[in-house]
Design a protein that fits this description.
The complex is a heterodimer.
Chain A (H helix, E strand, L loop, with lengths): L9 E10 L2 E2 L1 H10 L5 E2 L10 E2 L7 H5 L1 H5 L3 H16 L12 E6 L5 H14 L8 H5 L3 H10 L5 E4 L5 H14 L5 E8 L4 H9 L29 E9 H7 L5 E10 L12 H13 L9 E3 L6 H14 L5 E3 L2 H4 L6 H15 L1 E2 L15 E2 L5 E2 L4 E8 L3 E8 L2
Parallel strand pairs in A: 5-6, 5-7, 10-11, 10-15, 11-13
Antiparallel strand pairs in A: 1-2, 1-8, 1-9, 3-4, 7-8, 9-16, 12-14, 15-16
Chain B lengths: L2 H12 L21 H15 L14 H9 L14
Helix pairs in contact in B: 1-3
Classes of the chains: A alpha/beta, B mainly alpha.
Chain lengths: 411, 87
């Protein structure tokens, strides 16, 4: 525990989820509680060494955004726009009447619009530079998703895209909290998005050895913390949280899902893609987040772990959790259900963490049948577990050695 | 509406998903929501559709569908790239 300034809590007043588990809070929470994996064979990846993934089911951009507008947007932006709209609606806000100059947008993304890049590259090889689409650059650029969400909702406060790979969306929540603390704005739409399930991107991830090769049984492939895990399952999705200063949310009288009370970040400075073997980087981020929240490791009831289902990462993280969190809190990795939505993971999982706090229920980790023998942590599996979840943690680790941790508390 | 105008209109509806109503030969591309970038994209699509090679700048967002059809009608099919023909 650290003396000094009081913890700064920002209220999560809206959740927008567009994930393999569904569209909207209800579909997502039901699917995550069911503990059944969303991974299926993926026609678009047919013929690739890894030919399965977790896609958002039933996402119709023309119906949701309009055909003409959505044609000019890459899928990662389409998913984010719909998630942002859902989050704003859930928060009881109306973009037609709010003061847009006080609304910020901070979203994480890593791979940008790889579909447009690949399509224009192919067109250029065949027909020369003139065949490159004039929309390739605005569709491809990672920052564009913050700009597009701002256009869609009339958000004229500060906006940016955070790029810390698979920690991007957790970083976004941390950055958003600072914008609110500094009173740069009153509302921030914070989260992340990723839609890079193209043969090129998935082949690249596969060549790194990061992906599960369980093509014969995709539904069993994402198995965080299980002894038989062999890599992550690539996913797409977007998650957006509406964040407001707690006092503002209270004054507005809106329901608060949970409070973001602490944030910590660190960098391994070890290797471009391999996590530091002792887990010291993610430990540093988690301890910083707890210190920021004025809480100790013994206060934590629940962890929504990064747990991607990779052989190395899960052990490093699981051992770290045992070291830092004394009371063996209930751990889950919802990536067993959703797969790994890369830059969107931190926000989707922060949303699930908020729902766990709100409903006092920890979702199970899909496909966990035999805990990795190196680990001594209490991983919820088989069925959801009801528990008093007053303090919860969401961890994120990204290529580049980026680590981020969020501490959420009950409202 | 002549045949070229009809084909351009069909592209606007099917490919660009324009849902502005009414849409006719006198509609400008700006009326339909096109900006300068989407006009360049339309140029590429029309090149493929008619097997021609429009120059950048030959179409603009202030043009009507009828005016664009006139520009297309002046173009000769480009050898080797023909998918459709102007007439």
């Amino acid at each position: 525990m650290t003396a000094g300034r009081r913890p700064f809590g920002v209220a999560i007043t809206g959740l927008g989820l567009v994930t393999p588990a569904g569209i909207g809070i209800r579909q997502n929470w039901d699917r995550v509680l069911s503990g059944s994996s969303c991974a299926t064979r993926d026609e678009a990846l047919s013929g690739c060494p890894v030919d399965f993934s977790c896609r958002v089911p039933g996402f119709d951009p023309a119906a949701l955004i309009g055909g003409f507008a959505s044609r000019q947007l890459e899928r990662f932006a389409q998913l984010a726009i719909v998630a942002a709209r859902l989050a704003v609606e859930d928060a009881g806000l109306d973009p037609r009447t709010w003061d847009g100059t006080r609304v910020g947008v901070v979203l994480g993304n890593s791979l940008g619009g790889v579909q447009s890049l690949a399509a224009s590259h192919a067109a250029m090889i065949e027909g020369g530079p003139r065949k490159v689409s004039p929309l390739m650059v605005p569709r491809y650029m990672v920052n564009m998703v913050a700009g597009q969400v701002a256009i869609d909702l009339g958000a004229k406060g500060p906006s940016q895209v955070t790029a810390t790979a698979c920690a991007s969306a957790a970083t976004a929540v941390g950055v958003a909290r600072e914008l609110l603390r500094g009173e740069a704005c009153d509302i921030v739409l914070a989260g992340g998005t990723e839609a890079a399930l193209t043969p090129l991107a998935v082949a690249g991830l596969g060549r790194m050895g990061a992906l599960s090769r369980r093509s014969d049984d995709p539904a069993a492939a994402s198995r965080p913390f299980d002894a038989d895990r062999d890599g992550f399952v690539p996913a797409e999705g977007a998650g957006v949280l509406v964040l407001e200063r707690f006092v503002d949310a209270r004054a507005r009288g809106i329901r608060v899902h949970a409070v973001v009370r602490g944030y910590g970040a660190s960098t391994d400075a070890h290797h471009p893609t391999a996590p530091a073997p002792g887990g010291e980087g993610i430990e540093q981020a988690l301890r910083a987040a707890l210190r920021d929240a004025r809480l100790g490791g013994d206060d934590v009831d629940h962890v929504n772990a990064h747990g991607t289902s990779t052989p190395l990462g899960d052990v490093i993280e699981g051992r770290m959790l045992r070291r830092v969190l004394g009371r063996r809190p209930l751990v889950t990795s919802t990536k067993g259900v959703t797969g790994h939505p890369l830059a969107a993971a931190g926000a989707i999982e922060a949303a699930y963490t908020a729902l766990a706090v709100e409903h006092r229920t920890v979702p199970p980790t899909a496909n966990l049948t035999r805990l990795a023998p190196e680990l001594d942590i209490d991983v919820v599996h088989g069925a959801p577990r009801a528990a008093p979840v007053d303090v919860a943690v969401s961890t994120s680790m990204g290529f580049g050695g980026h680590n981020a941790a969020l501490v959420l508390t009950a409202a | 509406m002549n045949a070229i105008e009809e084909r351009i209109t069909r592209i606007l509806l099917d490919d660009f998903k324009v849902r502005v109503d009414p849409i006719g030969p006198d509609s400008t591309f700006a009326d339909l929501g096109f900006d300068s970038l989407v006009i360049v994209e339309l140029t590429l699509v029309l090149d493929n559709e008619f097997g021609i090679a429009l120059e950048d700048g030959e179409l603009s967002d202030m043009m009507t569908i009828a005016e664009a059809a006139e520009v297309v009608a002046t173009k000769s099919p480009v050898k080797g790239t023909v998918k459709g023909t102007v007439a």
